[in-house]
Amino acid sequence: MLNPEDLYEEQSGMLSHPRIQGLPLLVSLEPPHDIGGTAYGVADVLRKELEHIKLAEFDFDQLCRYRERSLHSLFRKGLFDEMSLPEVNLYLMEDHLKQPFLLLAGAEPDYQWQRFVQAILRIIRQVKSSYVMLVSGYAMSFPHTRPIVVTIRGSYEEVVAPLRTVNHVFEMHQSHTDFLEYMLARQNIKTVKFNVHVPRYLGDNFLPQAVLRALEHITLVSKLSLPLEKMVVASGQAQKSINEMFKDNQEIAFLIKKFEEEYDRYMKHYPLNMLELDVQENDSLLNRETIGQEIEKYLEELGESSSSDSSNADKPDSPRTS
What we know:
Number of strands: 10
Distance between the termini: 31 Å
Radius of gyration: 21 Å
Largest sheet: 8 strands, mixed
Oligomer: single chain
């Protein structure tokens, strides 16, 4: 393995500053398919709303498979005016009450997972982080008319035990954030993982509701004073838009009603084991998948119709999608 220390550049010896020592670390790394835009949204809100300085910058050129990424550029007056590339940075943040914490934000690496993790471990040991919080979005089979679910797990037992909602065994696809969580726990570093479950048929869209739920739970655990106000407003607007999109389609409304009834029946019997909605293999899961597929088909048709109607007009700004 190449030297992990060569993977990042520390800003002017800042990681050794006494003010940095012993702070909690929040990891919000965006995978190529960021469900609901959750990880992106959390980091974006915090960096826009809170005072912060950059402590370290990773050489993401070594970690990124650019052709697999959706890169964004701005073309203006015949020239590329702006172009954004993936990055990962470590920040010192201050909440609304001037309480400091650390934020590792940016894109998940495509390459050199273990080397990247070793670099993070070195930083955590250097700054003596008190514990590490991680956040990810996951697709889940439930209707958008029900509250977004957040499940919590981790090795920080004093915090996680009263909040843990998943105790069964199952297999799942692994992201880099999951791998990082696993490696941190193996090094006896305290972790708290927030899993934000987004309706499967809306997972490709940026959902302020998912970001808000993540920030609320991070606040609950960390006691930090984080910016929620704009996300509260944006969440209400987004929910209204989604409801408006479906209200005139009676077939979709019927399917969602069935979805709600099935979800409510299940939750009556299994109010805590939220992830079982995704991992159990029975007829009810097939029903939810069928409903979700019908809704996704309707959304695709709606998008194609909108695209056709506006083909001769300038394309307006649209919410970020993964």
